[in-house]
Specification:
The structure is a single chain. Helix content is about 35%, strand content about 20%. It contains 17 helices and 20 strands. It is globular. The protein starts with a helix and ends with a strand. The mean pLDDT is about 95. Bound molecules: inosinic acid.
């Protein structure tokens, strides 16, 4: 497998797995694959616990919010780094470490950047207060304090991981921050005493990771950069203001790891032939349009159990995980409904598209090629398609070919009114997860992949036909 992956990335020593859409495209599976077979070092550079990477290991589903997925290979000598561009909630980080302790998974070689910023309780209060719901026209943030923490970083009052190690500096900084949060009580003594056990826990791992990672690169170690969120959620290039507060593009991710973007080979993940979005903001190809946007904005009121109940699909809850038959006849008939809104629900159920971090239903629509073309400006032309197996049973599927004369726009007021022109393809009835050779994929699917490549000039290097690592077709 190592040789196969070396060939895919044309012998590069640093590879970034980044998302070309609105996040949740299945980066976890590929981060895990590269971490296991290819990388010596795995690093994350942007965001915080707003991300949730789902990985299936030995048939068991795990979700990592902060730790790189490569942490499970620490025992094999792999180094994992939380990079300088991240924002860290220490409680969440220590909970993830405690889970590893419980399962006796080692993390001796973990490194936490002294330059990462720390999410404080007042950041979370501010996030929840300002933006609790996309129903009220808000961004629909994950409420984890990400935006306010980055705001403080840019406003030069951020608390760095290195500040945690010097109590007097931490106290002075917290005192200074008070005047910027008039509505929240900031008791610096209490914050420090609450943080103390977490600080003790992470202290041995705090490092100057910018120097470390550049040394690793010079020594010839292979570095995997694990992206978070997605290009269309970038503060720099995304559909502002319905974006996150970091830049998950190749460039932004490189910045957040301390590496030079020029040395990194990007692999852009694209969910196909459908895509999703959580939270507010325009989504031109959304199935069911505004009806779906409003319905999904109700969040947990329309969660997975609600939808399974409503459409009479039997399920069980085993250890907190909802289990059901993803190809249940009622799901297939929803996917083939003549009403787009129902089709969208069918795809959501077939592909189990509910937020890994928040449990919210994800909005669904067909993969948008003008938006993808835009993403390739920053993330390059090498593409991995994911979740293509999910729509088996749909008689037809579509891609957005263009918006007529117009292009993708970051300006949400314009993007909302783009009129997608769809290109329809033949669907496939049978399961495709056990297909190993590209040529054996259904014709309609291969036609749509050709169409993608020709329309935007990209190269599809890998097609993922199931959640497990062996359900992967390398071209
Ligand atoms: P924040 O990152 O919590 O500030 O949320 C801002 C917007 O980005 C909201 O619409 C979130 O739903 C979205 N978002 C943040 N992280 C992710 C992610 O990992 N996947 C998908 N959407 C995300």
């Amino acid at each position: 497998m190592k040789d196969v992956l070396d060939k895919v990335v044309e012998g590069s020593r640093a590879v970034a797995i980044i998302c070309n859409q609105w996040g949740d495209t299945g980066k976890g599976k590929f981060s895990n694959l590269f971490a296991k077979y290819w990388a010596d070092v795995v690093v994350r550079g942007t965001g915080g616990n707003n991300a949730g990477h789902t990985v299936v290991i030995n048939g068991k589903k795990r979700i990592f919010h902060l730790l790189p997925t490569g942490i499970i290979y620490d025992k094999d000598g792999k180094i994992n780094i939380l990079g300088n561009g991240m924002v860290l909630d220490l409680k969440v980080l220590c909970t993830e470490l405690a889970e590893l302790d419980k399962e006796r998974i080692s993390y001796d070689k973990l490194m936490i950047s002294e330059d990462a910023n720390v999410i404080m309780p007042y950041h979370i209060s501010r996030d929840l207060d300002k933006d609790a719901s996309s129903k009220k026209g808000g961004i629909g943030s994950t409420g984890k304090g990400i935006g306010p923490c980055y705001t403080d970083k840019i406003a030069r009052r951020g608390i760095f991981v290195r500040d945690l190690l010097k109590e007097n500096i931490l106290k002075t900084k917290l005192e200074k921050v008070k005047s910027f949060y008039p509505k929240v009580e900031i008791d610096s003594e209490k914050i420090i005493s609450d943080l103390k056990p977490f600080i003790e826990k992470i202290k041995p791992f705090v490092k100057d990771t910018i120097t470390e990672i550049n040394d690793f690169y010079s020594e010839g170690k292979k570095i995997l950069i694990e992206g978070a969120q997605g290009l269309l959620l970038s503060i720099e290039y995304g559909t502002y203001p319905y974006v996150t507060s970091s830049d998950p593009s190749l460039n932004g991710t490189a910045t957040g790891t301390g590496l030079c973007a020029r040395n990194i080979y990007p692999l852009g993940i694209v969910k196909f032939p459908f895509m999703t979005r959580v939270g507010g903001g325009p989504f031109p190809s959304e199935l069911g349009g505004e009806e779906s946007e409003n319905y999904c904005a109700e969040g947990l009121e329309h969660d997975i159990k609600f939808e399974l109940d409503k459409y009479k699909i039997p399920f069980e809850v085993i250890k907190g995980n909802v289990k059901y038959n993803h190809s249940h006849p009622n799901i297939i008939s929803l996917m083939n409904s003549k009403y787009d809104f129902e089709k969208g629900i069918g795809i959501r159920l077939a592909a189990e598209e509910y937020g890994a971090t928040t449990g919210r239903p994800r909005r669904t629509g067909w993969t948008d090629l003008p938006a993808l073309k835009f993403a390739t400006y920053f993330n390059g032309m090498n593409i991995i398609l994911t979740k293509v197996d999910a729509i088996s049973g749909a008689k037809k599927f579509s891609l957005v070919e263009s918006y007529g004369e117009e292009k993708f726009s970051r300006d949400c007021d314009s993007l909302r009114f783009r009129k997608p022109i769809f290109k329809e393809f033949e669907g496939f009835e049978k399961k495709i997860s056990d297909i190993k050779a590209y040529d054996n994929l259904p014709n309609g699917l291969k036609d749509s992949i050709d169409f993608l490549e020709k329309t935007i000039g990209a190269k599809v290097k890998i097609v993922s036909v199931g959640p497990d690592q062996n359900e992967t077709i390398v071209r």
